[in-house]
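Figure 2 data, in text form.
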Amino acid sequence: MARSGPGCPAWLSSSTPFSTPPTYDYAQNRPVSEIEYVDNPARHRYEIRDGETVAGLAAYRLPDEEHVDFVHTEVKEAYNGQGLASKLVAFALADVRAKGKRIIPHCPYVAGWLKRHGEEYADITDWPAR
C-alpha cells in the first residue's frame, strides 16, 4: 500500500507499492541523473548522456551505405566502473541492426564486447581484415 502525507518523501508517496528512492551519487553530492543512450548522427557517434553532459561516446564512420564502422569508445573518468560503455555498445549495436545495417568493429572495445556478448550480432558483423 502506498504511503502519503506530510513529511513523507515523494518517492515513497508513489502509487507503486514498492517504490525505491532515486539513486544518489554521494561522491558528487548530488542525485544521479537519468542516463540515456542516443545516436548523434551529426557527430557520427552514439552518446551516453547524463542530463546535458556527454558522459561517453562510441564514434563511428560510415564507409558505405551498408556499414557502421565503430572506431573509438570512451567514457569520462567520473563515470567509470558503472558498466555504461557496455550498455552504450549494446544500445548502438541494436540500433545498427534496427536500421538494417552491418557492423565493422575496428574499435578494440567494441570488438572485445562482441567476442564476449555478441552471439546475437554475429550475422551482421564484418570483422576487419588484419
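Caption note: The radius of gyration is 19 Å.
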